[in-house]
Design a protein that fits this description.
The chain is an all-alpha fold and 118 residues long. The chain is 81% helix and 0% strand. The chain contains seven helices and no strands.
Length: 118
């Protein structure tokens, strides 16, 4: 295994832990409270509370994630779709995406971050 591949092992372990964690957490919350998160998410922001501040900050990070994914794919139609999946899917989409991309790029961090065309 190459040095680049070895350096990514902790990152891949983190991604796998995130995937398992977010699926488990989302399943429990969804079962207990339903899947309609938008009224509470935006309601906290409208109320100008600390949970609302966190939600607004998180939403900004999701926008950055979606823009990066679309940019990585050169804003192609597929790239825009992937960006929207990143925006609305959050970690549930981004962690598996990065795990797959890390293997496709054979551990090359430049390819992971910039895409294969750059």
């Amino acid at each position: 295994m190459s040095t680049e591949m070895n350096r990514l092992v902790p990152f891949r372990i983190l991604l796998i832990a995130m995937i398992i964690g977010i699926i488990a957490y989302t399943s429990i919350v969804g079962f207990n409270h339903g899947l309609n998160l938008f009224p509470q998410f935006f309601g906290d922001m409208i109320a100008m509370t600390w949970p609302g501040q966190f939600n607004f900050d998180f939403m900004c990070l999701l926008i950055f994630s979606g823009l990066w994914l679309a940019w990585r794919h050169r804003f192609s139609p597929t790239g825009i779709l992937i960006g929207l999946l990143g925006l609305f899917g959050g970690t549930m989409f981004l962690a598996p995406y990065l795990l797959i991309v890390s293997f496709k790029a054979k551990g090359n961090v430049n390819k992971i971050l910039l895409g294969t065309c750059r």
